[in-house]
Specification:
Blueprint: H1 25-34, H2 38-43, H3 50-69, H4 73-85, H5 91-103, H6 107-119, H7 131-147, H8 151-174
Length: 175
């Protein structure tokens, strides 16, 4: 049975979704205040569940990858965007979003996500992009360029993806 998200306990609320009767982080301070627990209300951090939000974002990214692999790029795209809004800016999450956008028919947006992949400061994320992820990035770029009609650019990006993959495999075998 599919129940609306507002009826499912501990469900994730996406931005702009209707609020249910359960207390949300934004209203928690008000609720403590209404109950007379001013000390509790003042002790709440400004960003109550950043770690929890990122954890939920990672779960949404995993779910997005499953939808993508099973041929539903539109749902994968929505879940990837939700994960990104929850703070999951890992390279794998960005690659899933780019591939979802590409398969959903929007190569321009896929390219803009790949630009974000390139511009993400490695110090700001838990795990920097691996060599394989860089190769995957260029492979997705090749497919996007091909969809846009830039066959020469696509061929160059594909060659770079292959070179990066071979180099990554060689390093893995040596190490």
């Amino acid at each position: 049975m599919n129940a609306p998200l507002s009826l499912i306990p501990n469900s994730i609320k996406l931005p702009g979704s209707p609020a249910g009767d359960d207390p949300t982080d934004e209203r928690l301070e008000d609720l403590y205040g209404e109950l007379g627990n001013w000390d509790e209300a003042e002790a709440l951090p400004d960003d109550l569940n950043t770690a929890d939000a990122r954890k939920h974002g990672r779960i949404l990214s995993s779910l997005a990858l499953l939808y993508l692999r099973h041929g539903d790029p539109s749902r994968a795209m929505v879940l990837s965007l939700a994960a990104l809004s929850m703070g999951d800016a890992r390279p794998s999450a960005l690659l899933t979003l780019a591939e979802s956008l590409l398969r959903a028919g929007d190569p321009e947006q896929a390219m803009s996500v790949l630009t974000r992949f390139d511009e993400t400061d490695p110090a700001l994320i838990e795990t920097p992009a691996t060599d394989i992820q860089h190769a995957a990035r260029h492979y997705i770029r090749a497919k996007a360029l091909h969809r846009q009609g830039d066959n020469i650019g696509a061929r160059d990006a594909l060659a770079l993806a292959r070179d990066l993959r071979v180099a990554a495999d060689a390093r893995k075998d040596d190490g």
